[in-house]
Design brief:
about 250 residues; mainly alpha; globular
Length: about 250
């Protein structure tokens, strides 16, 4: 049985009955270990539209939003729009995003969502990062062009499945890098990581992605090893062109 006393001590003004909170934990987390129950308590109360919980969430997490996003924008109208979109995304609809939070730094988790929303708002206002089209070979190389024509659909499918299989954070970091054109410093500020740590994380994610794509193509195509090696070499050489569109179209979770 969970001890709710520390949670109520953290949020003394919030009114939430035990049964509602315990049902919330069971529904969204089951028996997962190491949950951040204090934040989940506040989140559950916010989902119940408890006024003290909403006020506490606003004060602790939404008021610092301008500082959190200062490296991206300082426009008050954009920040207001992001704040409102964040409220809707977190607490409204059949699958409120707040239910996906389980553990770790809630501020860092929230910063990722807020950054994503800010970039989307900037795009709707005409500040869009250019993205490269999906191309698997240069037209000047007949051999690569043939591979592109023959295996384009299979490679695209393998990429999409491999991207979906990546851990959520790795997928988000790749999107920030390849779709939104954020530099290592900017990504580091989102995740509170050093520039070198971000670089290592991105390199590892790309390596995992390529290995998964190779495995999927090996199973799907059943081609001789030399031809598979040529396909993988092509995929690797064109990775910087393939990723933006594939990451942009990937389902976000």
């Amino acid at each position: 049985m969970l001890d709710l006393a520390p949670l109520r001590s953290a949020w003394p003004d919030v009114v939430l009955d035990d049964a509602t909170f315990l049902a919330h934990v069971e529904r969204v987390a089951g028996n997962e270990p190491d949950l951040d129950l204090t934040t989940m308590f506040l989140a559950c109360a916010c989902l119940q539209h408890e006024p003290h919980a909403l006020a506490g969430f606003e004060a602790r997490y939404l008021e610092p939003l301008p500082r959190m996003l200062s490296r991206i924008t300082s426009d008050p109208s954009i920040l207001d729009e992001v704040r409102q979109l964040l409220r809707i995304k977190l607490f409204v609809g059949p699958a409120p995003a707040i239910e996906r939070y389980r553990r770790g730094s809630f501020s860092a988790w929230l910063r990722v969502i807020a950054t994503r929303l800010t970039i989307d708002v900037l795009r709707t206002r005409g500040v869009a990062a250019p993205t490269a089209p999906l191309e698997l070979a240069t037209e000047g190389d007949a051999g690569l062009a043939l591979l592109k024509l023959r295996y384009r659909d299979q490679v695209s499918t393998a990429f999409a499945l491999a991207i979906a299989a990546l851990p959520r954070t790795d997928r988000a970091m790749l999107r920030f890098c390849f779709v939104d054109n954020l530099g290592l410093d900017a990504i580091g500020r989102v995740y509170e990581l050093s520039k070198s740590a971000v670089s290592r994380r991105l390199a590892r994610a790309r390596a995992i992605l390529l290995a998964d794509v190779k495995h999927r193509l090996e199973v799907e195509l059943g081609v001789p090893a030399p031809e598979l090696d040529s396909i993988v070499k092509l995929v690797r050489s064109q990775l910087h062109l393939s990723l933006p569109r594939l990451l942009k179209s990937a389902v976000q979770t």
